[in-house]
Design a protein that fits this description.
With 158 residues, this protein is mainly beta. The protein contains 1 helix and 9 strands, in the order H-E-E-E-E-E-E-E-E-E. It has a 9-stranded antiparallel sheet, with no helix packed on it. Residues 1-17 form the signal peptide.
Length: 158
C-alpha cells in the first residue's frame, strides 16, 4: 500500500516537473477529431478540441472547414471560446483565402479574413499581392485592414 502511494506521488511529481502538452487526433467520418490538453508558463491550464474536414479537394482547389472550442483555467480567471474557420487554396497552390469567426462565451465575437495570390510572369519574375481584414469585437469600432504587393525579379531563376 505504501509503495503504491509513493509511486503515485512520484508520477505526479514527474508530471509537474516536466510539463508537456498532450495532443491527439483520430479519424471520424470524413474528417478528424482533434484535441490538446496542456499548461502555460503562467500556471494556467487549457484544453482545445474540435473537428476538421476537407469539404472538397479537386480541380477547384482544396477547401477545409474546422470547428473548435477552447477552455482556459488560469490564476487570473477562466475563459471559453468557440470558433470556426474555412481555408481555401487553389489547385495550382498560388492563391489562398481564409475566414475565421470566434465567439468568447459572455464576451466578444471576432472575425478575420485574408487572401493572397502569386502571379509568375516568367521564370525569373513574379508579382504577389494580398490583403486582410479583422475585427476583434464585431459591431464595435472600426476593423483593422491591410493590403500589400511585391514585385520580384531574380537573375538566375527562383
Amino acid at each position: 500500500m505504501q509503495s503504491t502511494i509513493i509511486i503515485g506521488f512520484a508520477l505526479l511529481a514527474c508530471a509537474f516537473a516536466f510539463p508537456r502538452d498532450i495532443t491527439w487526433d483520430t479519424k471520424a467520418g470524413d474528417g478528424k477529431v482533434f484535441g490538446t490538453l496542456g499548461n502555460k508558463d503562467d500556471g494556467s491550464l487549457f484544453g482545445k478540441a474540435g473537428y476538421k474536414q476537407d469539404i472538397f479537394n479537386d480541380d477547384r482547389g482544396k477547401l477545409t472547414g474546422e470547428a473548435y472550442g477552447t477552455r482556459v483555467l488560469g490564476p487570473t480567471g477562466d475563459a471559453s471560446l468557440l470558433g470556426g474557420k474555412l481555408n481555401w487554396n487553389n489547385a495550382a497552390k498560388d492563391a489562398a483565402a481564409n475566414f475565421e469567426l470566434t465567439k468568447q462565451i459572455h464576451g466578444r465575437t471576432g472575425a478575420q479574413a485574408d487572401l493572397s495570390k502569386v502571379w509568375n510572369l516568367d521564370k525569373n519574375t513574379r508579382i504577389s499581392a494580398g490583403g486582410h481584414v479583422s475585427q476583434a469585437d464585431l459591431g464595435r469600432g472600426k476593423p483593422d485592414y491591410g493590403v500589400g504587393a511585391k514585385f520580384e525579379h531574380f537573375f538566375g531563376g527562383f
